[in-house]
C-alpha cells in the first residue's frame, strides 16, 4: 500500500465511522476554548471540563479575566497540572488580548502564539476548531497514531509530523482529521496495549502488520 493509498483508506474509514468528530472540551465561544486548551496541556479533557465552569462563572469573558489576580484564580485551577504556570499564563493571555487585540481572540496562528501559554499546538487547535482553518495540531495522540499507522515516516518532532500530514490530507479535511487522530489515539490506539482487535484501520496499519508477522 502506497502512502497515498494509506491516507485515502484512513480518511475514508473515519468519514464513514466518525463524520462528526469534534473536540471533547466543553466551550461556548473562542475565549472559553482558548482557556480550556491552555489548561489542557498535559492534562485530560475530562479534568479540564470539571474545572472550567467555575472559571467561566467568575470570569465570563476575557475582560473579566484580565483583571483577575493570581490569588483569586489559582484556587480555581489548583487541581489542574502545572497550576502556577497556567494561572500566570491565563491572566497574561487575557491582558494581552485586551491590550494588543482589542479584546478579540486572535484568529491566526502567528498572532495566537504571541499570547502567554499559547504554543503552535494550541494555536492550531483554536484556528482549526473555531475557524476550520487547515491547521493540524499535533499532540501525543496524533504523533503516536500517525507513526503507528504509517501516515508519517521517521517524524521526530510534532512539526515534522504536522508537515507530513498536511502533505497528504486534503485542506478541507484537515480540521476534522485532527479530531479523528486524537480520538482514535485516546480510545483505540492507546499508548500501551493498543486495541487492535477493535480497530477498523488494520488493513492500512503498519504497526498491525508488523505484530501480525511477528506472531
TrEMBL record:
Residues 39-187 form the HhH-GPD domain. It is an enzyme of class 4 (lyase). Keywords: 4Fe-4S, DNA damage, DNA repair, DNA-binding, Endonuclease, Glycosidase, Hydrolase, Iron, Iron-sulfur, Lyase, Metal-binding, Nuclease. It catalyses: 2'-deoxyribonucleotide-(2'-deoxyribose 5'-phosphate)-2'-deoxyribonucleotide-DNA = a 3'-end 2'-deoxyribonucleotide-(2,3-dehydro-2,3-deoxyribose 5'-phosphate)-DNA + a 5'-end 5'-phospho-2'-deoxyribonucleoside-DNA + H(+). Its cofactor is [4Fe-4S] cluster. The keyword DNA repair applies. [4Fe-4S] cluster binds at residues 189, 196, 199, 205. InterPro entries: DNA_glycosylase, Endonuclease3_FeS-loop_motif, Endouclease-III_FeS-bd_BS, HhH-GPD_domain, HhH_base_excis_C, HhH_motif, Nth. HAMAP family: Nth (MF_00942). Belongs to the Nth/MutY family. This is Endonuclease III.
Amino acid at each position: 500500500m502506497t502512502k497515498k493509498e494509506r491516507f485515502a483508506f484512513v480518511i475514508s474509514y473515519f468519514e464513514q465511522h466518525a463524520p462528526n468528530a469534534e473536540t471533547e472540551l466543553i466551550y461556548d465561544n473562542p475565549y472559553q476554548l482558548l482557556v480550556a486548551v491552555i489548561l489542557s496541556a498535559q492534562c485530560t479533557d475530562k479534568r479540564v471540563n470539571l474545572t472550567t465552569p467555575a472559571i467561566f462563572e467568575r470570569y465570563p469573558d476575557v475582560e473579566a479575566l484580565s483583571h483577575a489576580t493570581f490569588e483569586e484564580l489559582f484556587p480555581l485551577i489548583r487541581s489542574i497540572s502545572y497550576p502556577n504556570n497556567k494561572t500566570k499564563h491565563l491572566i497574561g493571555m487575557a491582558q494581552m488580548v485586551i491590550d494588543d487585540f482589542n479584546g478579540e481572540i486572535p484568529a491566526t496562528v502567528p498572532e495566537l502564539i504571541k499570547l502567554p501559554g499559547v504554543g503552535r499546538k494550541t494555536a492550531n487547535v483554536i484556528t482549526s476548531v473555531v475557524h476550520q482553518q487547515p491547521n493540524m495540531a499535533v499532540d501525543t495522540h496524533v504523533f503516536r497514531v500517525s507513526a503507528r499507522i504509517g501516515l508519517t515516516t521517521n517524524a521526530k518532532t510534532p512539526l515534522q509530523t504536522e508537515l507530513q500530514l498536511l502533505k497528504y490530507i486534503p485542506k478541507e479535511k484537515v480540521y476534522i482529521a485532527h479530531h479523528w487522530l486524537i480520538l482514535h489515539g485516546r480510545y483505540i490506539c492507546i499508548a500501551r496495549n493498543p486495541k487492535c482487535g477493535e480497530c477498523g484501520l488494520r488493513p492500512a496499519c503498519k504497526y498491525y502488520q508488523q505484530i501480525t508477522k511477528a506472531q
